[in-house]
Write a structure and sequence with these properties.
Largest sheet: 7 strands, mixed
Number of strands: 9
Number of domains: 2
Structural class: alpha/beta
Shape: elongated
CATH class of the largest domain: Alpha Beta
Strand order of the largest sheet: 4-3-2-5-6-9-7
Helix content: 25-40%
Number of helices: 13
CATH topology of the largest domain: Rossmann fold
CATH superfamily of the largest domain: Vaccinia Virus protein VP39
């Protein structure tokens, strides 16, 4: 598909200058202006024909243009900074029916009410709210075809981390339970204005048709949070914060009490979540035996 945005819109630099737009540090704003990178992000999963795309924090609209050019059926731009709405409105006017601009806080919108049919989230995320947004979107499950998101490289490494590595933690367990997670490519600081102090990375998250092991999402979040809340401690100590006997939970999940959170795979956390849900449903809090070594 040819690049549709270029003939209808003035250069992005001209738009930024005409509207007097500058990045604001308090919003974690860094403009991504390189069209080669924005096009690569937009086309990472191929032709977007027939797909409704939700873009968060579009700023002056560099990535928005690339998403439109990649063939998206409709692009919904959610931007909390009102300074950018006139510039985004120009894209909306150039592509009637294909671009919708919403002035709102992404943390407060109801994505399920906006996305219907084939849907995907593509965003150069504001780094200061990237993790809360991600956890919010994971709950959408297979209502999304997937997410193409840019994070700080450190956060991207945490998303794809394997057990027994330094980066492995709550983010890895929850994201890998909900999604297949792949780091696609890195973006150097010089690609942004102003240049951030860190390298960025684009990550592809594809919701799983079924999780690698069954678990109640709330129970899983609870046990994972407790386990990694004191990650240096053995599970027999870190799980005390759950308010039930950790040895009983570990015994039911067939996990040694001397293990630490970073040594458990996703499936083992699911077993622990099922044990916690069972104990919680029975109201049990006393010890039920010795955990398996």
């Amino acid at each position: 598909m040819s690049h549709e945005a270029a003939p209808k819109l003035p250069p992005l630099s001209e738009v930024i200058s005409r509207h007097g737009l500058t990045p604001r540090k308090r919003y974690g704003q860094h403009f991504l202006l390189d069209p080669h990178i924005t096009e690569r992000i937009a086309r990472l999963v191929g032709d977007l024909s027939g797909v409704v795309v939700l873009e968060i924090g579009p700023g002056p609209g560099g990535l928005t243009r690339a998403i439109v050019a990649a063939g998206a059926k409709r692009t919904i731009c959610v931007e909390r900074d009102a300074r950018f709405l006139p510039a985004l409105g120009e894209i909306e006017a150039a592509f009637p029916g294909r671009v919708t601009v919403i002035g709102a806080d992404a943390l407060e919108i109801d994505e399920a009410s906006l996305l219907h049919g084939r849907a995907r989230i593509i965003a150069n995320l504001p780094y200061n709210i990237a993790t809360p947004l991600l956890f919010k979107w994971l709950a959408l499950g297979t209502r999304l075809e997937g997410m193409t998101l840019m994070f700080q490289r450190e956060v991207a490494e945490r998303l794809v981390a394997a057990p027994r590595t330094r980066a492995y933690g709550r983010l890895a367990v929850m994201c890998q339970w909900y999604c297949d997670v792949r780091r696609a490519f890195e973006v150097p600081p010089g690609a942004f204005v102003p240049a951030p102090k860190v390298t960025s990375a684009v990550v592809l998250l594809t919701p799983r048709a079924a999780p690698p092991a069954p678990a109640d999402p709330h129970a899983l979040r609870t046990v994972v949070g407790a386990a990694f809340g004191q990650r240096r401690k053995m599970l027999r100590s870190s799980l005390k914060s759950l308010g039930t006997d950790p040895l009983a939970l570990l015994d039911a999940a067939r996990i040694a009490p001397t293990m630490r959170a970073e040594t458990l795979c996703v499936e083992e956390f699911c077993a622990l979540a099922r044990a916690y849900e069972d104990v919680a449903s029975r109201g049990a809090s006393g010890p039920s035996g010795q955990a398996r070594e």
